Amino acid sequence: MNQADTAWMLVATALVLLMTPALGFFYGGLVRSKNALNTMMMSFISLGVVGVTWALVGYSLAFAPGPALVGGVSRALLRGVGLEAQGTIPHVLFMSYQGTFAIITAALISGAIVERMRFSAYMLFIALWALVVYSPVAHWVWGGGWLAGLGALDFAGGTVVHVNAGVAALVAALVLGRRKDYARQAILPHNVPFTLLGAGLLWLGWFGFNAGSALAASPSAALAFTTTFLAPMGTLLVWSLIDLHRDQRVTAVGAATAIVVGLVAVTPAAGFVSPISALAIGALAAPPSYFALVWRARTRLDDSLDVVAAHGLGGIVGALLTGVFAEKAWNTTADGLLFGNPAQLGVQAIAVAATMAYSGVATFALLKLVGLVVPLRAVTTDEGLGMDVSQHGEEAYADGEGAILVLSRSDATLAAATIAEGRSA
Amino acid sequence: MKLVVAIVRPDRLGRVLEALFDAEVQGLTISRVQGHGGEREHVETYRGTSVKMELSDKIRLEIGVSDHFVDTTVSAIMLGARTGDVGDGKIFVLPVEKVYRIRTGEEDQAAVTPVPRVFEGSK
Hints:
The complex is a heterodimer of chains A (425) and B (123). With 425 residues, chain A is mainly alpha-helical. Chain A has 2 domains: 3-373, Ammonium transporter fold; 380-424. Chain A has helices at residues 3-28, 36-63, 91-109, 119-142, 146-150, 158-176, 192-211, 219-247, 252-266, 275-296, 307-325, 328-331, 343-373, 380-385, 387-392, 409-424, and strands spanning 85-86, 89-90, 403-406. A two-stranded antiparallel ribbon of chain A has the order 1-2. In chain A, helix 3 (91-109) packs across helix 4 (119-142) and helix 7 runs parallel beside helix 9 (252-266). The longest helix of chain A has 31 residues, at 343-373. Chain B has 123 residues and is an alpha+beta fold. Chain B has helices at 13-22, 70-81, 108-112; strands spanning 2-8, 29-35, 42-46, 49-53, 56-65, 89-95. In chain B, the strands form 2 sheets. A 4-stranded antiparallel beta sheet of chain B has the order 2-5-1-6, covered by helices on one side. In chain B, strands 3-4 form a two-stranded antiparallel sheet. In chain B, a hairpin with a 2-residue loop joins strand 3 and strand 4 (49-53). At the A-B interface, helix 14 and strand 3 of A face strand 3 and strand 4 of B.
């Protein structure tokens, strides 16, 4: 047990938890005002739904000793998760830290199905997805499963979090179908400052995500911190230059997107590459996601907030580039292609392909299963009215005009009593 | 000359504009308004306080047209705005006494006849 490690991991856990509300702002700004609350709630509710399932069984399925494909149930209900050391930090803290990853990974998927998915169906879906998809894949890479055995490098979850969520998002967008207005009307972001705020807070939280993945206050954490600092800068610059070249203008939504893409790309590489390589990874990650985004908007695929282009493709690029730029001089674990170990790139490709295949198939099956219990989509008139009013009975920007107070029974009794008192006085 | 005033659902505005432009109706003004029609009010709850929202968001269109254009305009709005549910809105056609075009000082019929469209190249 190490007190410095424990102190850093306490902070890192809080930072990663903040990323989920931040994602709510990032996504919430990109939708129409009538769907702002619904979109933000899709992130927030993951704190409840996935957080609870994580404590009940998710943690065990990911990290309890078990076969190569999935963890066991020996840690269910947090049995045996106490104050003893897990590595150099208390076991309870390790469990909390890993829980924040499960929460945001499920929330990431929501970007593909905003403005149309029934909220109850979404809650059921992410509860199941976290258990059936996230936990096993986390076990493969971090829980002593088969990808770890193979030597796949994934410092902070490029495959587990981003490729996984990106593929699930693609499947979800296809199964749910397009929004009724998609490609018929211009659907514009209602609050770009929210999106910038979300991107900024995501970056802050990501220091906990990547540097925390060292699980110690160590030189490796410092390296991961620095690469997380540099990579999005490279992406932001290249993205802006592409914007400038194509349209003579640098866009704010583009800048927010670029930051996220850079963070996604450096996630698997964070503690394995040199700072200059991180800058290169960030820069190289910009063009694929940029052009995937531009191309996607012309297709019939309504991956509404481009989870596939940002997280799926950004994650794949990052995972593969980790196999290119990894450097033993910095990580003491493995070299990549550029440093004389081309085989690493192959291992990275296997990790990506396995994650994509499993996530794709399992997500499809889960959505079909949930669809048997609750219709996946909101009814069309509710979609037209807006998901805030139809799913939550609230408005993001209510002005209160024309609102008439509904007195509940107890309120009515109270009001009558007050009136009676007034008369007698 | 008539003034066509239409109240439509906000989420049908795109379709209405499309239909109007297809029918070559080009001059119009819109405003965001709130109104009470026959539709069911919805209930919202904020921390235990429930409120019935008696007013729904609507879009009001105002279109000045010459007499022979009234039917075209009205049917374009109908086409774009109709969902078949209560709350689709209303169209009013009002007589107009005088119309002036500010830029040229043209009056009446000439003032509501659209000028040939000038296409500006994109920046």
